[in-house]
Amino acid sequence: KTRILTGITTTGSPHLGNYVGAIRPAIEASQNADNLSFYFLANYHALIKCQDPELVHQSTTEIAATWLALGLNTDNVVFYRQSDIPEITELCWTLNCMAAKGLMNRAHAYKAAVAANLDAGEDPDFGVTMGLYSYPVLMAADILMFNANKVPVGKDQIQHVEMARDIAARFNHHYGQHFALPEAVVDDKVAVLQGLDGRKMSKSYGNTIPLFLTEKQLKKHINKIKTNLLEPGEPKDPDTSTVFQIWQAFATEEQTADMRQAFVDGIAWGEAKKQLFELVNGELAEARERYNELMGNPKFIEEKLQEGAEKARSFSAPLMTQCRKAVGIRPIG
Ligand code: TYM
């Protein structure tokens, strides 16, 4: 079977970008009997960006409830919390000793932090932790631990999957064949969903549309999407519009073609946003109800995660035993 694996960092509430970039394609892939899927909550990754324990915990609950509400079937998916699998952090160290520092120097997240510091006239390493610097190694451990073949992610994560591949190849070259070489899978139509201000939708930009807002709040957020000042009746360019881009991520091809025409015909922004609200709300309404029920039943969520951890460890424990042996860590005699 092809192994599919993906994770979400447990900071903040999941948003439409996470949904179209990772959750929706991952759930679709899990329904294919040729695949074996591993989906998880990256709560150790969360510590890189968030040092508020309550927020990390709350977000872990929300993201778990989100996957379940959106129809993830835990009978055919290994669904777990990163921190429940101690082999991942153990493998992370082992891989740290194989990962080139020069490779980490090129990681986007680290480079962005350095660039922001330089812009602000600060020391380049101001506020940069070793966690941020070596974040791709922890991600490599997540992926390699389960010998994942395909990793469905948004465009921003492609580099990290490539780094995981590099690290795996280096390990295999030195210690023998232990890891499958993973590949990122990106849906081009929605590779980077834009946020309210037209930049990439991201928790760090504060421009997100959270997935499970109330209808009223969802409408409000969609109304806040930045547009130009063109009046009703004036032709609008779909290809530079966030409203159109989000539309495309939720619509059928036919609906997209119709909306493209409506833009050319000068649809009013208010009308386009109203239709976008209806489209997005239509796709999410049922899941929103299930999400609210699940959030009221944390015990059920915890049970699902415990079951998932047990399944995950049936893969990770033997692999880690094999890795330890490969690097020369084994009983004496
Ligand atoms: P994270 O939590 O930032 O995002 C989770 C997933 O959502 C995708 N995504 C987007 N896709 C399209 N448009 C957007 N605006 C958008 N914003 C986010 C991300 O690309 C990602 O697929 N390091 C990872 C989590 C992780 C992981 C892994 C992923 C940890 N270990 C192993 C895959 C495999 C992260 O912070 O994603």
From TrEMBL:
It is an enzyme of class 6 (ligase). Its main location: cytoplasm. It comes from the Bacteria. GO terms for molecular function: ATP binding; tryptophan-tRNA ligase activity. Keywords: Aminoacyl-tRNA synthetase, ATP-binding, Cytoplasm, Ligase, Nucleotide-binding, Protein biosynthesis. GO terms for biological process: tryptophanyl-tRNA aminoacylation. ATP binds at residues 9-11, 17-18, 154-156, 193, 200-204. Gene3D superfamilies: HUPs, Tyrosyl-Transfer RNA Synthetase. GO terms for cellular component: cytosol. L-tryptophan binds at residue 142. A motif ('HIGH' region) lies at residues 10-18. A motif ('KMSKS' region) lies at residues 200-204. Its EC number is 6.1.1.2. It is found in: Cytoplasm. It catalyses: tRNA(Trp) + L-tryptophan + ATP = L-tryptophyl-tRNA(Trp) + AMP + diphosphate + H(+). Homodimer. Belongs to the class-I aminoacyl-tRNA synthetase family. Catalyzes the attachment of tryptophan to tRNA(Trp). This is Tryptophan--tRNA ligase.
